[in-house]
Amino acid sequence: MLKIENLTKTYATGDKALSDVSLNIERGQVVGLIGPSGAGKSTLIRCINRLVAPTDGKVLLNDVDLVALSAKNLRRERRRIGMIFQEYALVERLTVMENVLSGRLGYVSFWRSFLRKFPAQDIQRAYALLDRVGLLAHADKRADALSGGQRQRVGIARALSQEPDVLLIDEPTASLDPKTSRQIMRLLTEICQERNLPAIINIHDVPLAKQFMQRIIGLRQGEVVFDGLPSELDENV
Ligand code: ADP
Ligand code: ADP
C-alpha cells in the first residue's frame, strides 16, 4: 500500500531531518508518529506528499514511486493523498458543503461559481460524508461559524471527498480540548477501518496515541527508534 524505502532528507542548511527511514503501512492501518520536536515528523509527512523533495529514497503508493514523478504526474498522484491539518485550513467564507467539495479540486481553485457546477453525484457524496462526520445539519453554514471540533470534522470530510488512498494527518487535535480530541481521534480511526484506508498521524499527545493508534512509530533525530504496538511503548521513547 504505502511503502517508504530508505528515505533521507538533508535540508540545504545541512540539517539532517530524516536518515534512512523505511516503513510499510497496510490498508486500514492507523499509524501514529511520535517523537520530540525536531525529530523529523513533519519532514516525513512532507516528503510523502512531496511538499519537500527527499534527498534520497522512495515513497511508493500502490507501487508508484512519488519521488521519481514529473511535476505533471505528481499532481495527479497527489490527489490520492488526503491531507488533514492542525489548523483545519478551511476557506472561512465558504459553506461547510463548499469546503467539502473543494477537496475534489485539490486545494487549488476555490471559486464559488466553479463549485456550483459540481455534478449531482459529487454533491450526493459530499452530503453522505457530512452525514458520516455528523455535520449534515450544518451543511449550509459558513465554516467560520463552527467550533474547532466541527471544523476538524469538515477537514476530515474534505480529505475523504477526494477519495484518497492514504490519509496524512498533521497534529489533528493540537488546537482542541481533550474531550473533543478523543472524539476526533475516534472518528478518524473508525473511518480508516471502515474504508480500509491507511493513515499516518503526526501526534504530539502520547497518551492519545496510545489510546487510539494501532501502531506507533517513534522518531528521534531523523531515525526510527520505535515501531510497534502502543502497549509495547515504554515511556522513554
Ligand atoms: P513543528 O511544529 O512541525 O515542529 P516548527 O516550529 O519546527 O514546526 O517549524 C515551523 C516551520 O519552520 C516549518 O515549516 C518547518 O519546515 C520550518 N523549519 C523548522 N526548522 C527549520 C530550520 N532549521 N530552518 C528553516 N526552516 C525550518
Ligand atoms: P518535527 O516535525 O518532528 O518537529 P521537523 O521535520 O520539523 O521535525 O524537523 C526535523 C529537523 O529538520 C529539525 O532539525 C529542523 O530544524 C529541520 N528542518 C525542518 N524544516 C526545515 C527547513 N525547511 N529547512 C531547514 N531545516 C529544516
Automatic annotation (TrEMBL):
Subcellular location, record wording: Cell inner membrane
Main localization, broad class: membrane
Membrane topology of the entry: Peripheral membrane protein
GO molecular function: ABC-type phosphonate transporter activity; ATP binding; ATP hydrolysis activity
Start and end residues of each ABC transporter domain: 2-237
Keywords: ATP-binding, Cell membrane, Membrane, Nucleotide-binding, Translocase, Transport
One Gene Ontology CC term in the entry: plasma membrane
Record has Zinc as a keyword: no
Top-rank taxon, per record: Bacteria
Name of protein: Phosphonate ABC transporter ATP-binding protein
Species this chain originates from: Ostreibacterium oceani
Shown segment, full-protein numbering: 1 to 237 of 285
